[in-house]
Amino acid sequence: MADAPQVLLFDLGGVLVEFTGVRDLAALLPEPATATEIIERWDRCLLSRAFGVGRLPAGEYAERFVHDWGITLDPDAFLREYRSWSRRLYPGAKELLAELRPRYRLAALSNSNEAHWDRNTHEIGVTEQFEVAISSHQVGLAKPDPAIYLTALERLRVAAADVVFFDDVAANVTAARDLGIRAFQVRGVEDIRSALAAEGLL
Q1: Local confidence pLDDT in tens for the 202 residues of the chain
Q2: How far apart are CA 16 and CA 79, in angstroms?
Q3: Domain ranges of the chain
Q4: Do the beta carbons of residue 200 and residue 107 sit within 8 Å?
Q5: What's the CATH class of domain 7-18+87-198?
C-alpha cells in the first residue's frame, strides 16, 4: 500500500467532466475531419492557447476562431455553442468525490478558459466540489508547463510527494511525475476508482 496523500488533484475535462468539444467542433467545420486531425489542429492553434491562458478575451477569441477555422456561425452564436461543450459531471463523479472528501483534501487543476470555467462554476457546479480549483486562464499557465503544478502546490501548501494527480493527457501526467507528484492517466470515474484501489487509497 502506498503512503496516503494529503491531496487528490484532478483534471476536469475527460476525467470528471464530460467534454464534447472534438465531436461538436467537427459538426461545425466546412470540411470533414477526423477526431485525430481536429485534436492535432487544436493543439497547434495559437488562438486557443492564448484564450486558455487568459491572454485573449472571449469575444475576440470567438471572432478570430470562426474566421480561421471557416465556421459559418457568427461569433456570439459560436461562443454559446463553445460554452456548451463542457457538458456535465460524469455520472458517479459527485458521489466519488463525496466518498473521498472525508479522507483527503480535494483540488482541481484544469487547462480551461473563461467560457468553460464560468459554465463549470455557475451552471454545472463543478468547482464547488473542491477546496481549491485552478484554471489555466486564471494563472496564465497551462499544463504541462511545470510552473502550473508548482503554482498548485504553493496554493495548497503541500509538497509534491503529498499529492496524487489524475489527468487524461499523457504529457500532463509525465510533467507531474517529473516534479515528484504521483500521477495517473485516467479517463472517467471508473479509471479513477481503479487507480485509487490499486494504490490502496480507496
Answers
A1: 467 899 999 999 999 999 999 999 999 999 999 999 999 999 999 999 999 999 999 999 999 999 999 999 999 999 999 999 999 999 999 999 999 999 999 999 999 999 999 999 999 999 999 999 999 999 999 999 999 999 999 999 999 999 999 999 999 999 999 999 999 999 999 999 999 999 999 9
A2: 23
A3: 7-18+87-198, 21-84
A4: no
A5: alpha beta
